[in-house]
Amino acid sequence: MGLIRSVLLMQLMIFLNVILTVKASTPAVAKPGCQSRGGDVIIPYPFGTGGDCNITEQFLITCNTSYIPNKAFLGNGNLEVINISTDGQLRIFSNASYDCYNTSYRNWFYYRLQLYKFSINNNKNKFTAIGCDTYARVEGYLGQHYATGCLSLCNNITDVSNGSCSGIGCCQTSIPKGVMSYNITIESYENHVDVLPENPCSFAFVAENDNYIFSASDLRGSNFKDKQFPVTVDWTIGTTSCKEAKMDTKNFACQENSNCVDSENNSGYFCKCFKGYEGNPYLPNGCQGSSIGFLGLLLGIVSLCWMLRQRQISKLKDAYFLQNGGILLREELSKRQGYREDVKVFTAEELEKATNNYHESRILGQGGQGTVYKGILADNRIVAIKKSIIGDPSQVEQFINEIMVLYQINHKNVVKLLGCCLETQVPLLVYEYITNGTVFHHLHNDDAASHLPWETRLRIATETAEALSYLHSAASIPIIHRDIKLANILLDENHTAKVSDFGASRLIPSDQAQITTIVQGTFGYLDPEYMLTSLLTEKSDVYSFGVVLMEMLTGQKVVCFKRSEESRVLAMYFVSLMKENRLLDILDPRVLNDENVEQLKEVATLACRCVRVKGEERPTMKEVAHELAGLQALPKHPWSKNNLAGEESEYLLGKFPSTYNDGVTSSSMGMGYDSINNKITFELEGAR
């Protein structure tokens, strides 16, 4: 290794000597003594690799030497840089959000981009969504909250036209001006059941206008999961105009032979060399009238980055452990009482062996913020190993605190967190492995071996209610799940319910009954009070669970555009039939018999109480679990013609919005679809 380094150093010195002999007037790219390249990316000042090499911290470029060749990243984050222009723009790679289904589970990933000081160029980028059962949103912050998106539907891929993104198989919409961050969420109205296997996935992404041309073949695969898309970003110096900046002669960035140009898209300015001049307008004597053809010779600087990589390899494991909060986790484990004794901090080597070095054949799926692998531990236990990503180093303490809370969850009807590993580049979470799919699959898929008899459905509902009651009131810190639905209730080999997918969950401090959040959940299950106020309470889970009960009673999906307009949203339709004493019209005939009518009636009444408009009028999950447990033991009686609506008088009975083809407008979410161009309208809300 030492001989190789000496040879490389000698070659570098010879190469630098050649550079010193070339034309003396070759203009510089970076400040003297600073690195001018990161891999294939030229790093012009005001950008730089740290210290005095960049004008401010927001212009920091990190050269990651763990890649061959090296890669340049913006700041200390994970945004890979493609190109930097001194004319106020740079190009970065971004990823797509996706939502994939098969007959047994769902894989999803929501992509978030945070630029802090720079902004997305609204003229050179578009938001695109692909799928036959797809509702995609992009939301973020540009001084106040914004949200926009589009809807893409199709019944058959043969109906889709290549190159067209008009809402049939593909849809597009513009990005607001000045956006500095965005979060892409993507949903399916019917879990792609009606379009499988032709279209198993929905995708959504922001990309440069001319980068992507839609093809019908894109609907058939999952090739967008790992694909990256170029995005053009605007950058500026400071936040003042040229006129104001020139008054501060000490800090004014534009050097001789250059003009100051005010940014059109956001505050601040950038510099340009005079016409006929070339070079870097931010460096003294940077703009020159002669050619800068010798800049290519500076490629030799990249050799320095490669050499640094050799020195870093031996330290990476410890660095990752510190970066991911390993020391903090050890301290918390040693001082806290009440956590399960079977939790474990795994080593990287243990999980590498368990997953056969993370071989692609071990991938179970991808969701939220990571990839899930099937692992076999040394004691032959089968586990699910999830790579989770901490996008912001400042969130490490919160991440460790949430890990500690999840460690303390020990309930037979909640998927158990077995341990974690912090020695890798991204944290790894180890969960118990659940083998029998979701309740959604058993209830709705035609190829399911069993559609679940009523006794099993009632037991699953009771177990789920007990798990939610535990999370709300028995856990050390109350946890609101925020996305209760049949697809998030797993079943083991004995059809025992296991509540899963805590990616949207929130911890509620003991001195608070509610918290304010960005609205997140699944259409059809989402609490209308939460949608209107953004105030998340335990009663939001109660509403979602009420819809789950209705789904189990009826065997129908919560939203289905093949049904008539008044029956498309199950919750509203169910309540209206209960008011008209017509419960029999909607009950699943596979569960209805003379002996269980009383149970069905009582569960239906309980479901209606759970979806009352005012959260304070809904029962608690503890009360719901108690009632369901009692109904399991209820003696079976023949049908009686009692009033099935009971005394319920106030439910979610607002008029269902107008539709366009299979589209839907939801005024409660502050969004709608344009019947002309089939796009969700752009909306601005006050920042919360």
UniProtKB/TrEMBL annotation:
<keyword id="KW-0418">Kinase</keyword>
<keyword id="KW-0597">Phosphoprotein</keyword>
<keyword id="KW-0808">Transferase</keyword>
<dbReference type="InterPro" id="IPR045274">
    <property type="entry name" value="WAK-like"/>
</dbReference>
<dbReference type="GO" id="GO:0005886">
    <property type="term" value="C:plasma membrane"/>
</dbReference>
<keyword id="KW-0812">Transmembrane</keyword>
<dbReference type="InterPro" id="IPR011009">
    <property type="entry name" value="Kinase-like_dom_sf"/>
</dbReference>
<keyword id="KW-0067">ATP-binding</keyword>
<keyword id="KW-0325">Glycoprotein</keyword>
<dbReference type="Pfam" id="PF08488">
    <property type="entry name" value="WAK"/>
</dbReference>
<keyword id="KW-1133">Transmembrane helix</keyword>
<keyword id="KW-1015">Disulfide bond</keyword>
<dbReference type="GO" id="GO:0005524">
    <property type="term" value="F:ATP binding"/>
</dbReference>
<feature type="signal peptide">
    <location>
        <begin position="1"/>
        <end position="24"/>
    </location>
</feature>
<feature type="domain" description="Protein kinase">
    <location>
        <begin position="358"/>
        <end position="640"/>
    </location>
</feature>
<keyword id="KW-0732">Signal</keyword>
<dbReference type="InterPro" id="IPR000719">
    <property type="entry name" value="Prot_kinase_dom"/>
</dbReference>
<dbReference type="GO" id="GO:0030247">
    <property type="term" value="F:polysaccharide binding"/>
</dbReference>
<dbReference type="Pfam" id="PF13947">
    <property type="entry name" value="GUB_WAK_bind"/>
</dbReference>
<dbReference type="Pfam" id="PF00069">
    <property type="entry name" value="Pkinase"/>
</dbReference>
<dbReference type="InterPro" id="IPR025287">
    <property type="entry name" value="WAK_GUB"/>
</dbReference>
<keyword id="KW-0723">Serine/threonine-protein kinase</keyword>
<dbReference type="GO" id="GO:0007166">
    <property type="term" value="P:cell surface receptor signaling pathway"/>
</dbReference>
<protein>
    <recommendedName>
        <fullName>Protein kinase domain-containing protein</fullName>
    </recommendedName>
</protein>
<dbReference type="InterPro" id="IPR008271">
    <property type="entry name" value="Ser/Thr_kinase_AS"/>
</dbReference>
<keyword id="KW-0547">Nucleotide-binding</keyword>
<dbReference type="GO" id="GO:0004674">
    <property type="term" value="F:protein serine/threonine kinase activity"/>
</dbReference>
<dbReference type="InterPro" id="IPR013695">
    <property type="entry name" value="WAK"/>
</dbReference>
<keyword id="KW-0472">Membrane</keyword>
